[in-house]
Design goal:
Elements (H helix, E strand, L loop, with lengths): L13 H4 L4 H9 L5 H14 L6 E3 L2 H16 L11 E5 L26 H8 L3 E6 L11 E2 L3 E2 L15 H8 L5 E5 L6 H7 L2 E4 L20 E5 L2 H12 L14 E5 L8 H16 L3 E5 L4 H27 L6 H7 L3 H8 L9 H25 L3 E5 L14 E4 L2 E4 H5 L4 H5 L4 E8 L5 E7 L5 H15 L3
Parallel strand pairs: 2-3, 2-6, 9-10, 9-11
Antiparallel strand pairs: 1-3, 4-5, 6-8, 7-8, 7-14, 11-15, 12-13, 14-15
Helix pairs in contact: 3-4, 8-16, 10-13
């Protein structure tokens, strides 16, 4: 692990130094009620108190404090400040941050240290953000629990003993625990939205291609994207605006303009307690004037089955091999596969290397199915004049870390962990749609539930505007 955690941390009041949102943190720095060094010290203090979460793989305390002092000096000398000056962010350990190792959560890459930031990281850094460290994840981003055999299982701050979700579990845990207010993950099949929902925060997957993927460890060129995670939708909108160099999305003037589609596919095999929380949220939105429309996406189950997994499995071998060579990591795909520590991930990569289990024809068929699914979504949005589709983010809340490797309990049955948790997030990733999860409330067992809205392709700002209004109506769960 880079640096160390045992540092002399300045004593300070939690109440005065912990800021619940990115906007609040930026405001506190701007008005002089705190400084970046104090915020950095507070992060390090909280990190020590939450080591059991195993949220981080790499933190360099000394480097962070040096950068914080440099930024504070710029404020003192009234240098031109960026829109994120003073914001502390964490980054999933498959996104390059100069000065840190980029392990992708796997032993073979533990020694790989990129010399340059990923393009999205560089943009945020130019805007004034500081990066506190690299977060833990499901190994090679191939899983939804973030139970990592090499770096430890990420624990859920909102539910002791339960997993944080994945594959961006470390980022979600760090935000939910209050260590930082926002951070970066990646999302190939739900990897930013699933842990956000299970940890009770906001998670955003943009339209595929909206953010650059340069400097990220790949899974699938067709499906990969960097995702954003934060405590509020407004913070997501701010980060999105900085990355895309646009104005932040604003909520619509009234709920009468919001029209949400509900498809029965996304409500099959839903945990009863989770469904109760979701239904209460829908009742509140209806009472506020949000319009709901029943819709169907023809053949969605078949199209997802034919496209989602085959595309990822076929693409990961060539994409990862190219990445390992292009970035001079010092290892190849054979070495990475041989050293995989997590049994579930090892089983997947054994089907990829040395010979892929998906044929060229199966891959072409998968791409055709993907095109059909994308077109089906487009027709539903146009025919029903929808702002978004709405559904539970996951079919069930977080489950125990122990015993969740293969199956989990759902309404008295044992169901497969991975396909069950990605059931609602996977279709929008295949169709390249923007998607946002918002906290909807807590079950009787105090487990967070996410409400997810999927937007039309390329309509990211419209989706975020809709999310801002839904968040306002539901309140912060």
């Amino acid at each position: 692990m880079s640096g160390h955690f045992s540092v002399n941390v300045t004593s300070m009041s939690d109440a005065s130094q912990r800021h619940g949102t990115a906007a609040e943190q930026l405001g506190a720095v701007a008005d002089g009620s705190t400084c970046i060094e104090q915020l950095s010290n507070q992060f390090l203090r909280q990190l020590e108190l939450h080591r059991e979460l195993r949220a981080f793989i790499g933190v360099d305390a000394d480097a962070l404090l040096r950068q914080a002092r440099d930024h504070d000096a710029e404020f003192t000398h009234e240098h031109i400040k960026g829109p994120l000056s003073g914001l502390l962010l964490c980054v999933k350990d498959n996104i390059h941050v100069a000065g840190f190792a980029n392990t992708a959560g796997t032993p073979a890459l533990a020694g790989y240290r990129p010399v340059a930031d990923a393009e999205v990281v560089a943009t945020l850094r130019t805007a004034g953000a500081l990066f506190v460290g690299k977060t833990n994840m499901h190994e090679l981003a191939f899983g939804i629990t973030s139970v990592n055999a090499a770096f430890g299982a990420v624990a859920n701050p909102r539910a002791p003993g339960k997993f944080a979700g994945g594959s961006s579990g470390g980022t979600a845990a760090a935000i939910a625990a209050g260590l930082v207010t926002a951070g970066l993950g990646t999302d190939t099949g739900g990897s930013a939205r699933i842990p956000a929902a299970l940890c009770g925060i906001v998670g955003f997957r943009p339209t595929s291609g909206r953010y650059s993927s340069l400097g990220t460890t790949p899974v699938s060129r067709t499906r990969d994207t960097i995702g954003l995670m934060a405590t509020t939708v407004s913070d997501i909108a701010l980060l999105d605006a900085v990355i895309t160099r646009q104005r932040p999305a604003n909520s619509p003037p009234g709920t009468s303009a919001i029209r949400l589609g509900m498809c029965s596919y996304f409500f099959e095999l839903i945990d009863r307690d989770l469904r109760s929380v979701f239904d209460r949220a829908i009742v509140r939105l209806k009472a506020a004037g949000v319009d709901f429309v029943d819709v169907e996406i023809p053949n969605i189950s078949e199209l997802v089955a034919r496209s989602a997994f085959p595309i990822a499995i076929f693409e990961v071998g060539p994409e990862l091999s190219k990445y390992l060579e292009t970035h001079d990591t010092g290892v190849d795909l054979a070495s990475v596969t041989r050293q995989i520590a997590s049994p579930d991930v090892k089983a997947i990569f054994d089907s990829v290397y040395p010979h892929c289990s998906i044929t060229e024809q199966e891959y072409r068929d998968a791409l055709h199915a993907r095109a059909a699914l994308t077109d089906a979504y487009r027709r539903v949005f146009v025919d029903h004049n929808l702002d978004a589709m709405v559904m539970p983010t996951t079919p069930l809340p977080a489950r125990d870390i122990e015993g969740s490797g293969d199956t989990v309990a759902l309404n008295g049955m044992r169901v497969p962990t991975f396909p069950t948790f990605i059931r609602n997030t996977d279709p929008s990733t295949v169709a390249a749609l923007p998607s946002l999860t918002i906290p909807a409330g807590l079950t009787d067992d105090r487990l967070p539930v996410g409400l997810m809205i999927d937007g039309a392709s390329g309509e990211d700002r419209r989706l975020l505007a809709t999310g801002l209004h839904i968040e306002h109506l539901l309140g912060r769960a």
